[in-house]
Each structure stands twice: as structure tokens, then as C-alpha cells.
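User: Quick sanity check before I run a bigger batch. Here is a single chain. Can you write out its predicted 3D structure?
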Amino acid sequence: MEFRYLGNSGLKISEITYGNWLTHGSQVENDVASQCVRAALDAGISTFDTADVYANTAAETVLGEALKGERRESLEIFTKVYWPTGPKGKNDTGLSRKHIMEAIDGSLERLQTDYVDLYQAHRYDTETPLEETMQAFADVVRQGKALYIGVSEWTADQLRAGVELSKELGFQLISSQPQYSMLWRVIEDEVVPASQELGVSQIVWSPIAQGVLTGKYKPGAEPPAGSRATDSKGGSDMISRWMKDDVLTAVQDLKPIADDLDLTMAQLAVAWVLQNDNVAAALVGASRPEQVHDNVKAAGVRLDADVMKRIDDAIGSVVVRDPKLTAENSPQSRPV
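Assistant: Done. Predicted structure follows.
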């Protein structure tokens, strides 16, 4: 495993970070989830990312149980706040002071820890003044409940405003968690340059495009039984944008590139996002321990310019790049 600094901070995290979105507390049984966490630890992963909304708080509980007994100082535990949780009452959502202060206590209890290393705004709250949100995060940090603050799917302008307030309030906003993969590159033109300017790193989710970049989905063929594309609990919705023959055909052209490098297609996809200097970590999930062992082999892989060009030549026609999609794919009003 290799480690990278997160933003303009002294915090190092594993460049392969274990995330339990869409798996723990929902898609896989708790004992298998614990086996996946154990596999991550055995592979050298020290950084674990979750959120209160995953499986409506159950994912945090599963992760807390799986990490129980580990040396806390050797781990980096991340969670998030924004989406509706619990009974989903009128204040059980968003980034109001009330919700943040209550949500962090719930997350810490479920994770069985006194603090999280990174507390992230899971989206931008258009209905709460940014000053209120940032003051609440500042107080969470001063109370010792979080060491650093991050965001997820914020635009470049939102990042600039957030970092400016964080400096005024005396805490560090050091990370952004966007979707990023060979196929989805909407952060490259605006979010990444702003982040480099601000001292913010990316912790990217879906580097394998919900599994499409593994190559297991073939054009004109039914999805494999038990795959995410057949999951009615949410996985099939997330992957649907990529389940088109032109995309799946282009992805198959990546296989010879991976073969030449003695990598699986999944490893190639994870290694590709890690070539971006502004990316501190790629989030990978797993429904089986062997998936962890497979993905972690992307750590430390270097792709030269010729390989990067071959990748662009193979899939360039189906890549999504429009920077406006960061804002368009975020809620325009607070979810309930």
C-alpha cells in the first residue's frame, strides 16, 4: 500500500480507501462485510469511508463493529452528513447547525469512536446559509469530534466559498469527494484546478463506474446474475447510465491494454484515477473479500503517457466531461 497527503494537511491516507456505500447493511450480510474489512486491513488499507445515510445508518454500525479492537490511532475513519436519516423528520436532513450537531453524535456512537478523522458535507445545502454550516463544522472540530472537514460533489465556486470561510473560522477544509473515473471526468476542467489552488484533494468514488469498467458487462448481453446491474436495492439505478451498447463496446477495447500491463480491467481503472496528482485516494467497495485483494493491486501502479493515450483512444467517444454536471446532479433543494 502507498499513502498520500490529504489536501494541504499533514494527514496521510491509504491511496486505496475502503468505502461501504451500497454494500454494508444492505447488499451483503454483516459477517461478509466484516470479512471484507478484515481483508482491507490485511492488504494495508488504513482509511475507511462511510456515511450516515448508507443503509439508513446501518452501514456505520457495521463498520464500527468490524473495526472494533483495532488500534484507533492507526486508522483514518471518514463519514458524512446531509441526506435524510432516521425517521426522516423535517430536521433530519441538510447542513443546518441542528442537524450537523445531532448527526455527528449519532455517527460517533454507531462507529464506536470518539472522533472521526474527516467529517464531510455529503452535498451542498442550498437552504442553509453557508456561514451556518461552516460555523457548525468549526464547532465540531473544536469539540474534538472531527479532525478535518471535507465535502462531496461541491462545485468549484462552492469549494472556494467554503475554504474561505473555513480559514476565517480556524479549521481545515481539505478534501472533496466527487465521482471520477475513465468514463466520468466532469471534475477535470473546474473542480480539480480550483482544488489545486485551494489545497484540497479529491477522494474519488466509483472509479470503476459501478463495475462497468471491470468489463463484465457485454454489449447486447444480459447482465450477469447477482451483479450490481441486477440489484433492485439501488445498484441497478446507479449503473443504468453506463448500460448502453456504445459504452460497453468501448470498455471492451480496454482489455488488451490491461492485459499488456498484466492488470485486471478493474485494477487498470483504479490505477487510472490515481494518476491524477490531485487525487489522494480511490474509494473501492467490496461484496466479497477477494474483490478487495484484487483492487488493492492498483496501488503504486504508474501508467505512462502512451498507456494514457491508448485509454483515451479506446473510450474517448463515450467519456462524459461537462463540468456543469457537478451542479446539475446535486439536489436543488434539501431532500426529505
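Residues 99 and 166 are 19 Å apart (CA to CA).

User: Great, the batch can go ahead then.
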